[in-house]
Amino acid sequence: MTSSSPRTTRTPKKNSPETSFSTFSKIDGDLWTTDPVSPDDLTGLGMRFSDAIRHVEAGSGWVVIDALGVLLMYAEDSRVCRFFQTLSNRVRAKEVHGVYFANHDAVAHETYEQLRAMCDAEYRVE
Known about the structure:
The chain is α/β, with parallel strands linked by helices. The chain has 5 helices and 4 strands. A two-stranded parallel sheet has the order 1-4.
């Protein structure tokens, strides 16, 4: 991921290969997870992330964060945005792919726009 690429917004068609996520079922390599951490403990989550990112292969690995909306339920929007900025910057610095999920309809518009601004592309699944 590079921040120099223009941000795009695309809405894949239902049942298209882009929305089936079939590529996730073909993982070839290790899958690293951690012990549970409370969603309001952004410091603890950051520490677990620091441990995990060391195991991601630079230049070709993936980081998937699928619960940004959950974090927003437990912590203030501004804290979650700062936390996400730190995570996304570390993903970029490692030169790996980052995939982040947030339900557009469940997140305040201003917060969603702040999160979106930290990403290179946006894909909506309707």
